Amino acid sequence: MDLVTVGGYAAMVVCGVLILWAGVRAARNQAVVLRQLILGGVIEVLILMQGVAAMVAVLGGREIVEGPVLWGYVVVALMLAPAAALVAIAERTRWSSVALIAVAFALLVMEYRILTLWWAGT
After folding, report:
1. Rounded to the nearest 5 degrees, what angle is found at the Cα of 91, between the Cα atoms of 40 and 113?
2. Inter-axis angle of helices 94-120 and 3-27, nearest 10
3. 106, 93, 118: which is closest to 7 by C-alpha?
4. Position 1 confidence tier, pLDDT thresholds 50, 70, 90
C-alpha cells in the first residue's frame, strides 16, 4: 500500500470522526470548539501529505488515468478545510457545527474519489 492510499484512508477515518463529533455538538445546539478545528488541521495535513506523495509518484513515472480531475480534487480538498475553519470562527452558533459536518462529509467523498482515480492508474 502506497502513501497516497494510506493518507486517503487516514483522512477518511478522521473525517468520519469529525462528522460524528460535530453531529453530537450540533444536536446539543453547540458551536465548534478549537479541538475540532485542530482535527480539521490534521485532515489538511493528511491531504497535503497525500498530494505530495502523489506528485512524487507522478514525477517518478506513475501513470494517472484522469490527471486533471485528480489534481482538481486535491486542490479543492486543500481549500475546503480552511474555509470551514473560517465559517466556524465567524459563526458561533450550532450552524458552525452543521457547516463542519457538511465540509467533513464533502472531504470524505472527495477522498474516496481521489483514491478511485489513483487506483485506476495502476
Report:
1. 35
2. 160
3. 118
4. confident
Model pTM score = 0.92
Residue given cell 479543492 in the structure block: 76
Q: Locate the domains of the chain by residue range.
A: 3-120
Q: What average pLDDT is seen over the chain? A: 93
Q: Using the structure block, give the residue that is written with the C-alpha cell 491531504.
A: 47
Q: Which three cell numbers stand for residue 91?
A: 459563526
Q: Which residue in this structure is represented by grid cell 465567524?
A: 90
Q: Is the pLDDT of residue 122 over 80?
A: no
Specify whether the CB–CB gap between 43 and 85 falls below 8 A: no
* pLDDT score of 121: 66
